Automatic annotation (TrEMBL), chains A, B:
<feature type="binding site">
    <location>
        <begin position="102"/>
        <end position="104"/>
    </location>
    <ligand>
        <name>L-histidine</name>
    </ligand>
</feature>
<feature type="binding site">
    <location>
        <begin position="304"/>
        <end position="305"/>
    </location>
    <ligand>
        <name>L-histidine</name>
    </ligand>
</feature>
<keyword id="KW-0067">ATP-binding</keyword>
<feature type="binding site">
    <location>
        <position position="147"/>
    </location>
    <ligand>
        <name>L-histidine</name>
    </ligand>
</feature>
<protein>
    <recommendedName>
        <fullName>histidine--tRNA ligase</fullName>
        <ecNumber>6.1.1.21</ecNumber>
    </recommendedName>
</protein>
<feature type="domain" description="Aminoacyl-transfer RNA synthetases class-II family profile">
    <location>
        <begin position="33"/>
        <end position="363"/>
    </location>
</feature>
<keyword id="KW-0030">Aminoacyl-tRNA synthetase</keyword>
<dbReference type="GO" id="GO:0003723">
    <property type="term" value="F:RNA binding"/>
</dbReference>
<dbReference type="InterPro" id="IPR004154">
    <property type="entry name" value="Anticodon-bd"/>
</dbReference>
<dbReference type="GO" id="GO:0005829">
    <property type="term" value="C:cytosol"/>
</dbReference>
<dbReference type="InterPro" id="IPR041715">
    <property type="entry name" value="HisRS-like_core"/>
</dbReference>
<dbReference type="InterPro" id="IPR033656">
    <property type="entry name" value="HisRS_anticodon"/>
</dbReference>
<dbReference type="GO" id="GO:0004821">
    <property type="term" value="F:histidine-tRNA ligase activity"/>
</dbReference>
<feature type="binding site">
    <location>
        <position position="300"/>
    </location>
    <ligand>
        <name>L-histidine</name>
    </ligand>
</feature>
<keyword id="KW-0648">Protein biosynthesis</keyword>
<feature type="binding site">
    <location>
        <position position="151"/>
    </location>
    <ligand>
        <name>L-histidine</name>
    </ligand>
</feature>
<dbReference type="InterPro" id="IPR015807">
    <property type="entry name" value="His-tRNA-ligase"/>
</dbReference>
Amino acid sequence: MSTTTANKENISEKKKDDKKVDVKKFTLKTPKGTRDFNDKEMAVREKLISTVTKIFKKHGAVTIDTPVFELKEILSGKYGEDSKLIYDLQDQGGELSSLRYDLTVPFARFIAMNGSKYQNIKRYHIAKVYRRDQPAVAKGRMREFYQCDFDIAGVYEPMIPDSEALVVMWEILKEVDIGDFIIKLNNRKILDGMFQVCGVPEEKIRPISSAVDKLDKATWEEVKKEMVTEKGLEEEVADKIGEYVKLKGSKELVDILEKDLNFSSNLKVKEGLSEMRTLLNYLEVMGVLPSVSFDLSLARGLDYYTGVIYEAILVKSSVDTSGVGSVASGGRYDDLVGMFSGGAKIPCVGMSIGLERIFAILLKKTKPESIRATETQVYVCGIADGTLLDRMKICSELWDAGISATFQYKDKVKLGQQFKICERDQIPLAVIIGSGEIEQGVVNLKLQYEGSKQVEVDRKDMVTEIKKLLNIA
Amino acid sequence: MSTTTANKENISEKKKDDKKVDVKKFTLKTPKGTRDFNDKEMAVREKLISTVTKIFKKHGAVTIDTPVFELKEILSGKYGEDSKLIYDLQDQGGELSSLRYDLTVPFARFIAMNGSKYQNIKRYHIAKVYRRDQPAVAKGRMREFYQCDFDIAGVYEPMIPDSEALVVMWEILKEVDIGDFIIKLNNRKILDGMFQVCGVPEEKIRPISSAVDKLDKATWEEVKKEMVTEKGLEEEVADKIGEYVKLKGSKELVDILEKDLNFSSNLKVKEGLSEMRTLLNYLEVMGVLPSVSFDLSLARGLDYYTGVIYEAILVKSSVDTSGVGSVASGGRYDDLVGMFSGGAKIPCVGMSIGLERIFAILLKKTKPESIRATETQVYVCGIADGTLLDRMKICSELWDAGISATFQYKDKVKLGQQFKICERDQIPLAVIIGSGEIEQGVVNLKLQYEGSKQVEVDRKDMVTEIKKLLNIA
């Protein structure tokens, strides 16, 4: 992000001529942790969003929209200690509001508020959220960023919506083509049961779970140290946990764990393993099992998960993705809507695509000069002065025919300059006219690649011929 | 907007069973002046936005994105007395920021900040803005609403970009099909010159101009009264203004006004009339002149306009559009960027599409039951229990082929129920399987309209046959 301070000299110089100029000195920047996106960056972002949206729609999802800010009380008590990162609106009279921190709580509020109408909904929502976190621009951690959520609410047979959410995640990660990935899978029921089996006291289960959550970045020794030294867990208990969290695999791991009767006789573990068996079976049928790893070390930070949890990470990419972390994640949260609806439980499962992280990787993979910010197909050129009105007329005909076309905003034109614009903006076809052509009722068409020959066509056939050359219906 | 208060009874009842349930009483609503949009409303909004975007792109426009909030000092001093409507973020340490009030000031800030890189840009921006105005839900005036802007920045020959902005406005209003419209045109130079010619004192030009701006809603008598009684204008001067502001027409009005030497000898008027002549000429060439009315009563509220101004209003529609006001508007603002860049002038012309107003009209025109919120093409039905895995497998094949497909999330299914879902969601094609079909390696396809016959096809030909039936490539 560039920061420019208005040039004071210029201002005072200018001031002599024109009293109207505002002499206030501006620091031209966006607020900390926010940024602009220019035309080329937006072209990459829009293509990504359109890819993701297409896949959501392919799975029959609808979209809803909620306001950028919510009543403060709706958000409070949902994000644990991270609540301090919520942006509040100033109290200017009336209700106290805050910028949304994620899209999940507004979604839960929407479902609870609409009573029976949206108790079954498969919805996606791609929109900006706000966190007053310490920005890390290099890592792509901003205070304003997109979230991209897909959630299925409703009472269904176990693991069916969960498996479709995972298939959607898998399809998107395949399609955006940022590298090879695996999706780690676990289940909060198994985790909680595992902590019970290992002897973790009830009140320490959440803190110990959040220590386990660090295993993707830290070694077991570091995590164990945190458990024992910081969180006061007995070393023996930590060592038992250590044996389990190193386990990962696929369907066979479910078998192994079920045979471990000390483990699988725990009721939570039992329920969790049964869910995993069903889920892995469905994933196999839908062809995504090879990309999935049942991983007992996956814990996920958020408090509200109640069942299956998952997280996709890159294992190979053509660009440096170190420090990127997960590129998609989610899980089942059966109790969140109930917090709003006054107890009426609406089970939900969902996932978030890490749009900003994927965008950062795509941008690294793409040469800036290869990005087209416009979709212009035709540039209408004049050979000589005095063709402005005819170029306008031709553009107008092309626009009527649905063809994207532009022309130079001047009457005294030079052909070379216009061709340079074609090249710079990668416009594939030029229409060329001079006074001769206008008189004879013809135009010249030239595809903008090396060796392409200029062809003269009748003015009345122009649109048809252009469509043929550009291969558009 | 419905407002629901969580049922206290339910909560206490529930509390006995489950201590985890949050007993806090929520008022479930969105903040004043904001609202949710449900799936069907979003389908209408997205179609509208996609239509508008397509036309912007057809004219070679790019898009940029700016943050939802800006530094407070960037916004202050740009909106006159309406600055009191700006939403401020609470001071939580760090910079003072405010929610954006429009997209024009952030655009000017973006251009000024990027130095020479974006001195020539044709950009659109469709995004939400925020105003702490008194909401009028019935009129569609909200505190959070979309703006949809198209602007051309850069030094060009007079009236060329202005005419394209008007053509874009015209194409969009044609395409969204909300009724017959006219685009009123005027020029700030003519207005200012007119006030000079009539003898309005310099310091009263803005207040008198904003009185003229009310002529679309008030009679001349009411406006005159405001001028004379409230704003202290001499009655004789007001009467002179009254003679001019009733004038409207097309190219011939320019001729008439130029022949009025008392009027056209004013330097501002002269310049303005010359611009109007050029502009109307360009608009004629591009075929939109019949929809345009040069109207001396058009004044436009915003301070920053410096040249051509315009406003589109509906003159006929199939639904009640009374009180809707303008559905698109804009003008030239040559000095705004200079306020940020420290005097370096970057001329701009632009226009806003009244997306929220058009959306409200489209919603009135559309029967809710005719709106499809999903794009699902195929529903995969089971004749009997035990077909879940096969329905999953078939869906997965269809997804791989890019076909939008869903299935019922249960194993014990009833065909009648599944057909009802097809009907409710307007899904055009059903794939039907039972255990017999699975064994024989076939599926049944049935288009969901009265009298369509079920056809049996080989499982391996399923995708091809479905594409044929649905007419997709």
